[in-house]
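Ticket reopened. Same input as before:
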Amino acid sequence: MERRKFIKQTGIATAAVAGMPSLDLFGASAKSKKITILHTNDVHSHIDPFSPEDASFPNQGGVARRLTLIEAIRKENPNTLLLDAGDIFQGTPYFNFYGGELEFKLMSLLKYDAATIGNHDFDNGVGGLAAQMPNATFKMLSANYDFTNTAMEGLTKPYEVFIKDGIRIGVFGVGIQLEGLVTKALSKETQYLDPVEAAQDMSRILREEEACDLVICLSHLGYEYRYDKISDLKLAEKTSGIDLIIGGHTHTFLDKPVVVSNAKDEDVLVNQVGWAGINLGRIDFEFDTSGTVKTTSKTITV
Amino acid sequence: MLRNFILLFLALHVFSCKDSQATLTHIDGKQIPITDSIKSDPAIVEYVAPFKARIDAEMSAVLAYAPQSLSKNDGPFNTALGNMMADAVLELSNPVFEKRTGNTIDAVLLNHGGIRSTLNAGDVTMRTAFDLMPFENSVVVVELTSDKVNEMFEYLKSGKAHPIAGMQISIDDDNNLVKATINGEPVKDGQTYFIATNDYLQQGGDGMTFFSDPVSMEVLDYKIRSILVDYFKTQDTIAPVRDNRFTKE
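Engineering reply: fixed in the latest deploy. New output:
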């Protein structure tokens, strides 16, 4: 069965490239592919590094340093995605003075591929966020905020499929409950929908309809709570089909990414890298494309 | 011809998706600290420079001096930094409130999560105020019934070090309220109290629903950050302390 599929696919691919230079479909380099996912969360307008006198993070962070690091990784592996899990806005005078303009322009210069929306991204109102969207070349993803009748209507997508080296990577976003965090005066008619249902729906669409090889959730739900509130760890347990949850909101510094068993007893990676651009998360996914590997088990090193 | 091309395209699309041979075999995850060992990208530094220059000009004004760094995490129940913020709100809002209404603020409640940075030892500048309180939130004074004030104490007994002033709380090992007073007096049934907070919390932020439907409300149009700036200007040295306004017995 596996072999039959393989031949069929090769045949079509060959037909498509007839008259063009032949592709080395059987070469060793084509048998293994690597996708690198880089991520930040809760950068909170921290564009400059913290000062050397800072009591908590002396000399750490900084957008200009982040780009140097990202460019070095892109040179090593061009098949890299750069993602952010929300709370881009609010935390330094850059936001008070310029309303998020510089944050979005810099993320665009760094070639972020996608981000999701955090509660503080509503701090100048849903209209204030919409006003900065022309400065964003990256996709703003949200599967559980309904922006109908707000300034953000039509400016977000639930998910995006990125194709890197033939690997289909589905990315979707989920945001935190707005009640109690964002006042109605700011969120206007934005509706918060159940993130677990939204995430499972996205996972199904991305796996089945979009035939993705890799499914990534950008979450601003928060890593974990001591009370009954949906979090990244709970979302991981309650859903299936998601490979990686990139979290935010709780400003959680993890020693390393955490592996959680999902509803089908498969491994999901959950990661969050503190806040303020102190760290860059890096997750490498290796794929075998020889067609000979049938096992669903994979190895994870963190 | 075009139709054939579309069909071929569709066939390609379907087969390349459904018959994908990619099998995930290995995941490797880590995080990379952004430190001064990484060179800054010069194009980004140049791009940011004009934005930064305008801000730096305003932010570097020195307002006071702090001999020691202060953090909102430097103790349970109450912290020096939180106490300073709540005390500053009480001290600077009350004259405004009194002049407008003839009433006096009884107590202040802000939220722990609203303290957005440490206050670093050394010069206290305009930037310090922006770091601590980047939000545009303003002081509002709500008049609460005794029932709502009791609800407020029930909320506070969880023990989180929300900045408070004008009230005293003590809890036991099981987080039951042992003492809950306003200006040293127990809450009197039927009496109303004037509590200063900010507009975010008044609108239910951080789950403080007891602020939602007050007997009356006065919006002072005085930003919390402006209060900090004005407070710093009146002080030479910023050295608040932890005290017994909220304790565990």
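DSSP finds eight helices and 14 strands in chain A. The radius of gyration of chain A is 20 Å. Please confirm and we'll close it.
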